[in-house]
Amino acid sequence: MRRLVWLLAFSLSFPIVALDASDWRAIDPAHTLYLELPQGRVIIELAASFTPNHFQNIKALVEQRYFDGSFILRSQDNFVVQWGWPEGRAPKLKSAKAKLAPEWERPIQKGFTALDESDVYAPRVGFIDGFPAAQDPKLAVEWLTHCYGMVGVGRDNEADSGNGVELYVVTGHAPRRLDRNVTIVGRVVHGIELLSVMPRGTGEMGFYKTESERTKIKSIRFASELPATQRIELEALKPDTVEFKKRIEKARNRKDAWYKNSPNHIDLCSVVLPVRVVSR
Amino acid sequence: MRRLVWLLAFSLSFPIVALDASDWRAIDPAHTLYLELPQGRVIIELAASFTPNHFQNIKALVEQRYFDGSFILRSQDNFVVQWGWPEGRAPKLKSAKAKLAPEWERPIQKGFTALDESDVYAPRVGFIDGFPAAQDPKLAVEWLTHCYGMVGVGRDNEADSGNGVELYVVTGHAPRRLDRNVTIVGRVVHGIELLSVMPRGTGEMGFYKTESERTKIKSIRFASELPATQRIELEALKPDTVEFKKRIEKARNRKDAWYKNSPNHIDLCSVVLPVRVVSR
Q1: Cβ–Cβ under 8 Å, residues B157 and A6
Q2: Are A182 and A47 in contact (CB under 8 A)?
Q3: Engineered SS bond to B201: which of B37, B112, B208, B241, CB 3.0-4.6 Å?
């Protein structure tokens, strides 16, 4: 009994209501990566609009099959899982660029859906194109934020040294200190549990020391490259809908019998961004 | 090169300086649990002072060897790993109590080390006895917070239904909504990477559906029950020291060559609480 009730109480699920179909947007197969592992498929939605140049570069990398046969290189507890090629074994770039100006922030634009909370790291937080994001009106910039599941671009010390050949996904408490320091190119929307359980590397910063520790990546493809029958069609709940706001309010003000003290607040990276599989 | 620099840049390590030995406190073996798994040892420091009644109950459970042969029951992605007995298989309690008044908050006392940040969930955050904590001066209460690695007590809907027979550890983004709703009894101080990679359960809320999915717990013992030669002696950096404050300031105001934008802030659950193994 304890187990069951606890289970329900901790759930972030909500009553099933008739949803307006327009509350959900189809995740564009042309902006969707399939990271194919021996364990299964991880699906990443790319923030093509926020990071157009990185999107193009990653597209060029995928087109040359750059990642096929590469590896999960690193799994650091409470931080990130990272993939790419081990030192000295990377294929030569074809049309992809070796350097790329960062796209970790941009001037504030229309289309920001605010979450009414003050934040340790940003004066305004919310959502851009369905991704968690923040704004600083004084600096007049906005950026995508390092929440669980967000995918970023590893780089050297030079700001323009990240080109997408090494990508990481956040698998721990949100490392918001990285905001506005790394270009975030997307978010895992399906199958993150295949990455988050990768055995932690025993090398420094969670890097794997030996080949045998590394998981080989079978391929990375755009969903749009695959025949429809081999795709997993996904939809995401739009943040600028009544339904989304309702869920936020329910998470803020808990009325479940289990909660004895309601948080009354929610932090950006605790907001669930619902994604559902479309069955036809 | 990219990998190396990135590696250094992301490190939260700091220059090696001569540390005042008194900056570190020995973690008391009488307050330390060894959770022995086939994969190795996980070490939990119990918040004996903050939750004295739960501490005594867990002590009674360990003394009757309640957990020996029990299981990891649940691994929910970006949330918790939980252990105890499957429904209907729990041994009878001997001296341990079945019900226990919650200890998820207490009146504000002396000994709170403040972290100078405003927080989404609490007006004041900081540390109590080396654990992350928060205070609300209006309510005149303080509590331990659900950061990564914190260990709490599962319960039913009734506030007094958590007695320590089911424990969980936070393995995802800090679920601070649980603060002041569950008694936090301690923190994993060693070996959390053995728990955080547990394959996610395919049942609802990450519960394992079948026996074969569950990892069996060999035993739970207090460190003080073992001969010194079989212990792992640990020390924790005290939060109320100059050294700790220095580290916080370095994490807030990044001067590394890698950082192009310093966060200037740090959230409570991003603060590293350093623990070191003492070699004699």
Answers
A1: no
A2: no
A3: B208
List, run by run, the mean pLDDT of 10-residue segments along chain B (280 residues): 41 47 94 98 98 98 98 98 97 98 98 94 97 97 98 97 97 98 98 98 96 97 97 97 97 95 97 92
Alpha-carbon distance of A54 to B184, in angstroms, equals: 43
Query: Minimal CA–CA distance to B218: which of B38, B45, B60, B61?
Result: B38
What's the DSSP call for residue B79?
A: S
CB contacts under 8 A, B 202-241 vs A, are 204-205, 207
Q: In what order do the strands lie in the sheet with A106-107?
A: A106-107, A141-144, A131-136, A124-128, A112-115
Closest CA to B19 of B232, B207, B246, B263: B246
| Cβ pair B2:A155 closer than 8 A | yes
The runs of H, that is alpha helices, within chain A are 2-9, 52-63, 192-196, 242-252
Nearest partner of B96 among B64, B137, B141, judged by Cα: B64
A176 touching B (Cβ < 8 Å): yes
Query: Could you identify the residue written with the tokens 């040359």?
Result: A64
- Residue B80 β-bridge partners: B170
Residue carrying the six token digits 């009553």: A15
CB contacts < 8 A (A, B) = 162
Query: Which chain A residues have a beta carbon less than 8 Å from that of B161?
Result: 2
Name, in order, each residue with C-beta under 8 angstroms of B98's C-beta and a sequence gap of 6 or more: B163
Chain centre to alpha carbon of residue B148? 7
Q: How far apart are CA A159 and CA A127, in angstroms?
A: 25
Residue A27 corresponds to which tokens in the numbers above?
A: 């995740």
Counted residue by residue, chain B has a size of 280
CA atoms within 13 A on the CB side of B22: 3
Cα–Cα distance for residue pair A206/A271, rounded to 1 Å: 27
